[in-house]
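Quick one from the shared queue. A colleague (R.T.) flagged Serum amyloid A protein as missing a structural entry in our internal table.

Convert sequence to structure tokens.
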Amino acid sequence: MRLWVCIVLLSTVLCASADRPGIVQGAIRAGQFVRDAARGSWDMYRAYRDMREANYRGADKYFHARGNYDAARRGPGGAWAARVIRWPFLFPHSDARETWQGRVSGRGAEDTRLDQEANRWGRNGGDPNRYRPNGLPKKY
């Protein structure tokens, strides 16, 4: 008896999945977009965490490009996350770093411009290794 119930349920699911209404397909696409965006956000966070862990001078552009590259490869949701997420807004202490760079070190505007260039490079599918500094451990 259980076998027949399983066969009937499986047949129903297979038949129903063959002709999904448009609203169901739209909901599925929306769910995939949200999933890709969440995973893309995680990719961005992982790159940021690795940058903090590496603490390697001159490697920030590489990590910016890598985070955006990984996120954009997730699909439309990941590409959206890469465009929307800005490191200073996601991580408030980065805002303090940008302020410090602009006011104290004098290289804030130029450094921010180069960060944004690395972000665009990664988002558009460019190889993040273009920004990889010599000597950065293979782990990253």
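Residues 77 and 122 are 15 Å apart (CA to CA).
The domain at 28-131 is CATH 1.10.132.110 (Topoisomerase I; Chain A, domain 4).
Added to the table.
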